[in-house]
Amino acid sequence: ERIVLATNNPKKLAELRRIVAACGLAVEVSGLRDFPAYPEPEETERTFEGNAFLKATAAARETGLVAVADDSGLAVDELNGMPGVRSARWAGPACDDEDNNALLLAQLDGVPPSRRGARFVCALAMVSPDGERRVWHGSMPGHIAEAPAGVNGFGYDPLFVPAGLSVSSAELTAEEKDSISHRGIAVRAFVDYLRGLS
Ligand code: ITT
Ligand code: NA
Question: Per its UniProt record, what PANTHER family does this chain match (predicted)?
Fold first, then answer.
């Protein structure tokens, strides 16, 4: 069985593949790079779920495969849930992870530890060529550190300290992160669904 993950983010694809593999599921997950380029939809929705369905719908149509899309991001309490669906390109159209992390630290400058709460959220949408539509959600609560630490993971991981821990999610091993992450939770629910089909 082969499914396509509608993403251009190689780190995200690697995490999803690794979580599916850890479940012992014999499903091959292809990224968009394995397919001829198609016009990707603009992420115009205001919710993670809406954007995940935009991406999965386009990928199912273009590839003829069951398509899943992960729309995810960081919601910071003190910033009323920002950057949220804008997490990937918060600091500007051509920004990288470092720019986004610098902006986050600047936005929270002077904000005390008690008000630095945040969560990562993930909506994983599935669209099959025959029109079936499903979505699974996951979240990981925590807080934003005063300085980056760690080199694992991607995105805002160096600044995010998961609840109950004293290290950032970029200091966790892959297995440790997957066991508690927003993506791990959503992908394992998807895997349960696939198992229920067979
Ligand atoms: P695709 O839309 O092509 O999948 P993207 O990176 O643009 O790739 P999103 O729109 O879903 O994907 O934005 C997700 C962003 O949220 C991502 O670029 C990171 O900045 C952040 N993010 C999501 N999950 C994360 C994680 O596990 N660790 C750190 N940052 C994460
Ligand atoms: Na998005």
Answer: INOSINE TRIPHOSPHATE PYROPHOSPHATASE, INOSINE TRIPHOSPHATE PYROPHOSPHATASE/HAM1 PROTEIN
CATH code of 31's domain: 3.90.950.10
Q: Is 182 annotated as a binding residue?
A: yes
Indicate the pLDDT class of residue 33, thresholds 50, 70 and 90. Answer: confident
C-beta 31 within 6 A of ligand 1: no
Distances from the Cα of 156 to the Cα of 24, 34, 40, 53, 192, angstroms:
28, 27, 24, 23, 28
pTM: 0.96
Cβ 119 under 6 angstroms from ligand 1: no
Give residues whose Cβ lies within 5 Å of ion ligand 2.
43, 51, 71, 85
Ligand 1 contact via 88 beta carbon (within 6 Å): yes
ipTM: 0.97
Number of domains in the chain: 1
DSSP state of 98: H
